Amino acid sequence: MKNKELFQGKNILIVGLAKSGFAAAKLLHSFGANVVVNDKQPREGNQEAEALEKLGVAVECGGHPLTLLDQPIDFIVKNPGIPYQNPLLAEASKRNLPIYTEVEIAGLISEAEIIAITGSNGKTTTTTLIGEMLKNSSKSPIVAGNIGTVFSEVASQATKEDILVAELSSFQLMGTEKFQPRISVFLNLFEAHLDYHGSLEEYGKAKAKVTENQDENDYVIYNADDLQVTELMKHSKAQHIPFSVHKQLKNGAYLKDHSLYFQNQKIIELKEIVLPGKHNLSNILAAAAAAILAGAELEQIQIVLKTFAGVKHRLQYVGEFEGRRFYNDSKATNILATNAALTAFETPVILLAGGLDRGNSFDDLIPSLKNVKILVTFGQTAEKLIEAGKQAGIETIKRADNVEDAVPAAFSLSQAGDVILLSPACASWDQYKTFEQRGDMFINSVHKL
């Protein structure tokens, strides 16, 4: 671990606990920083707050009082999910106080090289693929970030013999200033999280911070089929490594003669790849390019692509019951992800969709609903999705209270040969804490059948 001295004696306010705030507080306290933690949850029953206080960290719970800014503060570390419009953070910005996420801390202290993956969709699949492809290489891969383990916590333990493979959201990247990964990956850009960022332009700028500090010794891998991503990458100083499913690229990853290539080297024939869905070809191209640049062995890449069937909650095959196949795609939290999921099936689909209403319409989903024979909706967006289903010509549409009720409702309307797919096209936060919890509820309901 390096640069610990940068934080010694600094006055740091951490806003929001959860996993990232808790890990950052412990870490910065161990560096000798003067840490104050603020969490909106009540003090009673707050185990993280209790654990930090035992370490000697000051914790204030139950809200975000502006008086916290009256004490000396060098910078703030915020939970990624807390918007900058939060009154405390808005006031901090007025006072020109730097506001970071723990990703900034991770980048400063890590001795290991970093591969950072971002994009609107496919981050988890691509990150997992890269981690698997780098096994048995010269450096040990450690997967972290938005995919599970807190990035700064992992970075504090990593050595030069490791390589960190981190899935990073726009929320996390927005709070960085000097973050410089060795390899960055920008998968795609689609209208999402506009309630947080305000516009697609601001959302794209936040994503593009993954390459903002890279130089000519670094690599940026990006989707040449996405015009918005390509435009944003014009400002990157890193070596450009494009990937495409439509064009053959001398300096990138591409498809030719029913095979996957990287810089004119054949990697694998498409028929040998087991990961389902046409949309996953882009993820595979990006992952292979990153893995090769990071030192992965060709044989290991081939083994992964011949065996890797997907990650939990992303087009996850749950099982078959009375001729119906069930798939959990709870991580499809926007329209693009659900569009991609629907293209993965040629048989009739019964779609379970709905969730948090972010104010968007579902007009862009309508063309993909042509293969949907039955639509079951739930959550805040249920009525909007019903209207989209009607416009798509779906004859059978049913509203359920939640995912647990949607599964038996879908089954009762189905017949042998159907696919029953949870692909919500919405975030989960109206009814569930996380998309993982929503997906687990789907799996549990399928098992109850």
Describe the structure in brief.
By secondary structure, the chain is α/β, with parallel strands linked by helices.
Give an overview of the whole structure.
It is a single chain. The protein is of the alpha/beta class. It has 3 domains: about 90 residues, 3-Layer(aba) Sandwich (Rossmann fold); about 200 residues, Mur-like, catalytic domain (UDP-N-acetylmuramoyl-L-alanine:D-glutamate ligase, 3-Layer(aba) Sandwich); about 130 residues, Protein-Tyrosine Phosphatase, Chain A. Helix content is about 35%, strand content about 20%. Helix 10 links the parallel strand 10 and strand 11. Helix 4 runs parallel beside helix 6 and helix 5 packs parallel to helix 11.
Write the layout of secondary structure elements.
Blueprint: E1 11-15, H1 18-30, E2 34-39, H2 47-54, E3 58-61, E4 75-78, H3 87-94, E5 99-100, H4 102-109, E6 113-118, H5 123-133, E7 140-145, H6 151-157, E8 162-167, H7 170-174, E9 183-186, H8 194-197, H9 200-208, E10 219-223, H10 227-233, E11 239-243, E12 253-256, E13 259-262, E14 265-269, H11 280-293, H12 298-307, E15 316-321, E16 324-328, H13 335-342, E17 349-353, E18 372-377, H14 382-391, E19 396-399, H15 403-413, E20 419-422, H16 435-448
Parallel strand pairs: 1-2, 1-4, 2-3, 4-5, 6-8, 6-9, 7-8, 9-10, 10-11, 16-20, 17-18, 17-20, 18-19
Antiparallel strand pairs: 12-13, 13-14, 15-16
Helix pairs in contact: 1-6, 4-6, 5-11, 15-16
